[in-house]
Write a structure and sequence with these properties.
This protein is an alpha/beta fold. Helices cover 38% and strands 16% of the residues. Helix 5 runs antiparallel to helix 6, helix 16 runs antiparallel to helix 17 and helix 25 crosses helix 26. The longest helix is centred in the N-terminal third of the chain and has 28 residues.
Length: 1322
Amino acid sequence: MSHLRFGDSAIKSEYEIVRSNFVACHFAGYVGKFDILGTLEEGGIFVLNSPWDTMEKLERNLPASFKRELAAKKLHFYNVDAGKVAKEVGLGKRINMVMQTAFFKLSKVLPFEQAFEILLDNIEKTFGRKGPKVVKMNQDAVHKTLAVLQEIKVPESWLTAKDETDLVTHSEHHPAATLQKDLPTRDAFVEGVMKPCLSLKGTELPVSSFLPGGQAPTGTTKYEKRAIATEVPVWIPENCTQCNYCAIVCPHAAIRPFLLTKEETKAGPEKYEAIKTQGDKDIAGYHYSINVAPYGCTGCEVCVASCPDDALVMKPLPERMKEYEENWDYLTNIPVRGDLTDKNTVKGSQFQQPLMEFSGACAGCGETPYVKLATQLFGDRMIIANASGCSSVWGGTYGEHPYTVNDQGRGPAWGRSLFEDNAEYGYGMFLATKQRRQQLFNDLEQTIGDDSLTLSAESRKALQTLHDSFNDTEICRDVYKAFTHLIEKEKATLPKLETLWKQRDMIIPPSHWIIGGDGWAYDIGFGGLDHVLADPNNNVNVLVLDTEMYSNTGGQSSKATPRGAVVKYALAGKSAHKKDLGQLAMMYKHVYVASVSLAANMNQCVQAFKEAEEYDGPSLIIAYSPCVDWGHEEGTPAMIAQEKEAVESGYWTLYRYNPTAFEKGANPFILDSIKIRRDLEEFLGQETRFQSLARAEPKRAASLHESLDDFNKVRLEQLHAKSMDELDMLDALKKKLGEQTGEKIHILYGSETGNAADVSKNLVYEFKRREVRAVATAMDDFDLDELPTAGSIICVIATCGQGEFPGNSKGFWKALSNPELPADYLADLKYTVFGLGDSSYVFYNETAKLVDARLQELGATKFHPTGLGDDQHDDRYDTELEEWQPDLFNELNTPDPPQVLPEATHKVERFNIQVAKENNLSPTVDRYVPPGADLVPLSKVDLLTPVNYDRDIRHIEFDLSGKNMHYELGDSLGIWPMNPKEWLEPVYDYLGVAPTDIVTLQDMQNSRKFPFPAAITAETLLSQVLDIFGRPKRRFYEMLSLVATSEEEKATLRHLITKEGKEEMQVLVKDTANHLEIMKMFPSAKPNLATLVDFIPEIKPRLYSIASSTEYHGKDALHLLVVADEWKTSKGVEKHGLCTKYLRDMTVDEGPLVASRVNAAAVQYPEDQCIPLILAGLGTGLAPFRAVIEERAIAMKKGEKVGPIALFFGARHKKTEFSYQDELEKFQEMGVLTSIHCAWSRDQKQKVYVQNKLSEVPELVVDYLINKKGNFYFCGPGGSVPGALEKEVANAFIKKAGMSEKDAEETITKMKLAGKYCVEAW
């Protein structure tokens, strides 16, 4: 708030104005929040910046008490939409010149003609060094303001204005409350202290309002409700690919993704939107919604700039305030479901609750997203020492605390230090908790070792687990939950337990963070920081928020300021280069160091935080943090571009240095940004801190910028060398000398989330095992000019959304697509491609297909078929990769890897029942429940086909009562089967084990995200865990060749996995030989249990489309339609599919529990019941259509209008295979099902298929899909049927809609993209 006084002579006294003649409110949100008109004298002038440009809008938005005061004081009221003016002239959100013009026009401080000339002249002087464009924008703002400034005639009716919710929050509405010394509630603090302070009445509070020591509750910023944004982002669900990029970059945690059940979705406010989750099995059955906190959003537009899908647009906040507030209040009161996802991914991290929210940081702040991310990953156990500076101001201003807690009351513990000693401050915290945890461990050992203590078995087990896994965070977290429940009951009579109870806050290992800006870390606090990093035993994490200046104190130069930047104390451009804090820390060899820039590589940033926290020693993360004081020409949304372009221009480098690599004999340094892809001067030219010097002193600026560019290039070259092994370094030197480099395979990857990069790096490892040189490089980091002479390349590329290239491959693809490249450009290149995609999207693996086709067009030779990984498989892309990769090595004729069996990941021991009893060893679980699964009771099984019929089709029902399982139309149920007891007898004999033997499994390499049970029976291991009757992978044959004692068997096994043995292998695959059968074929190969655990995969769930609607049957009923999978091998041996046999053998009387989980729909069905549908299904493909029809029947019963449905169904025989015939005919009688078109392929001499039936009604197809804009769905076996159906739909469009063949194809493609033409085939 500014108080301005004017007079004929100098005014030297200092005081606040108590009687004013002119008041201007620059933000409409302050009306009703502050006592704006209190000092204004009668007849004074009031100017409001607001979008309320009509009397109707003013009537609706101004509080009644505000209107009364305007009228009572007979004020001259003016309004100007300064935001609109600024936007129109190109100033973005900068309204200062607009409001200055209004002031000089209305205040009469100077004659306006004189003021006008001075104003224009001052614009030249003030903004001249920023260029003529900026000068003109400000001058245009002056002229535009004069044209739109409007006087509002205050109506007499405002003298008696009244409304239901008077928004004024003057001091009389917030009487100072005297708080009790123990601060009983957050509400008391908010009402008694915080709100008066926010109303600028804090000076009126008595001392008794405050607690001694300045204590205050956390998580209070959400009550502040600043509402400072004039525009907020609006979500466009149909464009959204659910990447969560908008949330991870949001500086204020004001935009977030939410996961809702179907019931929560329906119970929500009228105007909020949610769509079904897609692509991620972990969140199947939930709805996804992006929403904005209207009072917490600053309108910075960073989220819009980060969105790759155009799924966010900015809209005026006043239009959506009430709607957004209702939505936010509702969504923040549903459970946070971060536990469903992997938090160590970009997407998964944003489903975690941010434990730092709505801070007072600037709009578009580059610091806060990093700290917010840290709280999402580790916040419930963080202890933060914060240096004075920006992060301490927005992080800990008294009364407004952004650090908050989760639903268990856990959150970051935060404290601010002096500027110069923050590292020591955080170090002291670490030493204190280290000592406390050691004391807890000592007391724990004493308690466990005291046999005289009468502990319950559960308590002793919990304490022993804590002792054995004292530094394992997740196990300690589980123990903590059990501990509070168990020990509380027993501690009253056992003093040693009471001692442990008092130390329970140390059970979960704290995560220590020392946070501050570059002024602290590079300059004043560097000595302390160096002291902390120097000791390898200090397990602390340091986060440096590098704004490259003292941003909190006005933008002074620091040792982090780069050469050529204009800042305070370096107004002629800083002469010295930036200090390299990362290099200094890496000199110690034991410090984990990462340089990150969030928007440039979000995955690398998340990975760096994860690795830093996991590292048992000091870590340092240096985070590029754009600051508004840099003066980017695009304003606050530029944070995204700044973070990306800084890396692309070589100005900022991304890397990770992980000392744990030394233990593996690997290079600890990984350079994550290899190539400069943008001109530095282009990057510098967008920021005032560099361009102001270019305008004032062009020669000096050019010299400094050129020097900076050279410095950056040398630094990148040095870092590149640091990342190389000896052979790569030799190649680099040869290349410099113009000599031929050594042969190697180039693996080029395009990766958005890191998966393609991981596949590539694993390929490098596998080639290395085979003594073949290979190097993995992001596509954009590879020079296309080198491609013709690269020899052999492997392209590994992901597809984003609907056919988009990943960010680090777009430049490569653009260059490769150059039409000027000759047809033989790559004639000497050999290549193959592996794609990572999701078959639920229309453009499945589109980027892999495009790269493949383009390489062939340019003359390259494909040496190995393209592999297409699919996220819809339970093992995701690994399913295809495990088949594709061994053949890759065969095609390249690589040497065999070392013929040594890898060290077992698990220590596996077996005890017979007697020995187990003697050692008090018992199974830790009676039933193995796979991660993500729940045990669901089977409630009904009906055989739909005749007994002894050659096809077994069953209707199966499950009871979901009390289960946290939710499903939607189109979802499937994944069922984990169990190996039948009769199948297991020969397994026990072969392995020499008894079903009752106890098997212990200890993970020696932390190889599993979800550990196996510590002890289980052999029967459980072989029936519920290991897929011993599944088809072996190549690696299984390789393992058998290593353990076989017969040389003949060794040779045969090795032959099978070579290129020459491919045909024999195909015979085994065709005959569906399983693990047991293969082991019996090679009796000298006797792997032990530890080896089998590593080489036989776990039993995977089989997916079945859900055949029921929760609207029709209730949320606790789930139905399936299942056909038994049975076949004969080439030798006439009858075989049965494991899961269908498992389901068929169960009876309801036994009350079986089936391990299951819901999987997200591969296709989406419309929520609008009026949309016409054509449903085409084969066999059990009828299942999801039954659910769709049921849901429409309920809608009709409720009196809702429903659209027509045409069902096309195909099977062999009507009499035996028309599943749900009675139900369907009943629905047809009701009018829910408009028509049924059945194709019985074997009921007549000439075979009739479902596509034939579709071809008979082209008028219906055109009417439903074109005229009425309906949807088409197919569900059933794949093969030729989906293509045949699509052909008939296209023919209908040609015949009855007058389309050309091309138009028909394009129409179907557009329908697919819009989710209106959907195929679910298996």
